[in-house]
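Student:
Attend to each token:
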Amino acid sequence: MLEILEKTGAYLKGHFLLTSGLHSGQFFQCAQLMQYPEPTALLCSELASHWDADKVDAVVGPATGGILLAYELARLLEARALYAEPVEGKVMELKRGFKIRPGERALVVDDVITTGGSVKKVIDVVRERGAEVLGVGALVDRSGGVSFGVRLTALVSVEVPNFSAEECPLCKKGLPLEDPDERLASAT
């Protein structure tokens, strides 16, 4: 799985500045994977196979990282695909006429789990509407063991240490710090 992520440019090694302000020697940008339908379909098929017997009604992901993943998993599981978006004054919300009904069985998905914050917000949205959260699916879990209170299935689980700027061994080695989004933008 890591080989596919690396080959598609979704798994990067270097010295990266994360959104949190922390530094890391590894970065996952699964949008790079999802521009290639065949490897994306292959990985989604593997992830969907873990949920075949669960009678999933809806697959829900956070915008933007979970949109394509939710769609492809919903197609494979013969379910509906929904996504939640951040809304000013609210944490996450189903918009665009999306509805999840009480009693429906939902799978929550995201491409990469780092802190689990987005997934937790989507779980809250699903539960607020009376639906059952069957579990969480992800391509990559780099959280180090975050718990959602439901089954978590990730295709790749990696321990990726993050460092403050003051404690970063990569800084101490003099490696240049990169913003991964700028690196990816300049590669096009």
In short: The two ends are 24 Å apart (CA to CA). The chain has seven helices and nine strands. The longest strand covers residues 132-141. The longest helix spans residues 37-48.
